[in-house]
Amino acid sequence: MPRDTTSGAVDGTRSLPAGPSPRVSIGLPVRNGERYLEAALDSLLAQTFTDFELVISDNASTDATPSICRAYAARDARIRYSRLEKDIGGFPNHNRVVELSVGEYFTWGSHDDLRAPDHLAQCVAVLDRDPGVVLCFSRVQEIDERVNPRPGRREFLANVASSDPNERWWDLVNGDWVYDPIYGVIRRDVLRRTGLLRPYWDSDRVLLAELALHGRFQRLEEALFFRRVHAGQSCRVFPSRRALVAWYAPHRIGDIAFPLLTECRDWFLVIARASIPWRVRLRCTGAAIRWALNHRHEMRYEFTFAARSIAQKALRRSPPSHQSTAT
Question: Which of 106, 160, 169, 182 maximizes the CB count within 10 A of its CB?
């Protein structure tokens, strides 16, 4: 079992300070994030809303990440740092910080992004004011490696604030959109009723769509989240679905996998377990079928690629044939 090398507790679950739980849990999964980590931590610790815990799960970093995290944890009692001895993958590490958190609200932190000082305060105010909102996020400003603003980008997700769950579902399943809400503030009890992040490329889309069946999203019109675009991002280091397996599930490198077919299955599983009226369920199913039809050629390619891989492996394992010769 992995051990927390800062506290000696098993699996990073060291004792929490006595008293009420923090209102917000910030879960920060990280692996080899030394270049931008200190700036990201400073940004989180500078929030005007201070009733939070910062749960850091270090996924077997081999750079200066552990020493940076330990130094910050020694200075601020709100930080709980846990280090894994083996790389479990990016998405499992994202799920791990959810499991270790205790706050009423939850937000994922990132080792390379920044937030305005009042990001948490404004998101929490919306969630406190409106129980029908399950996730509050802000507009995003992209920045470069030196924190210079990048040119503006298109905004999508026009219907995530709709009172109609079918409109929210369609916007997230079939819309042309960006992933801004994943770093918003979420009601943790709702988040824990989902399947969290799954082991494939589009997993955050599936999670957000499942959250949207539980309630509305609210977007703050001011850009309070600053997404750093740089060469070390996972989407740039691993530019294809197949290559990205090395980031989210390193133990599955070389396995025959069906990520799109798995995602297709999960759309229907999400609908099946949701507590929604049958009319909503039918329309959501129609949107999922539309997604499947839009991706049918890619899913067919997965079958073809898998069959070719199986055949090649079988040929490599087959013993060489020996012809008998007459004497």
Answer: 169
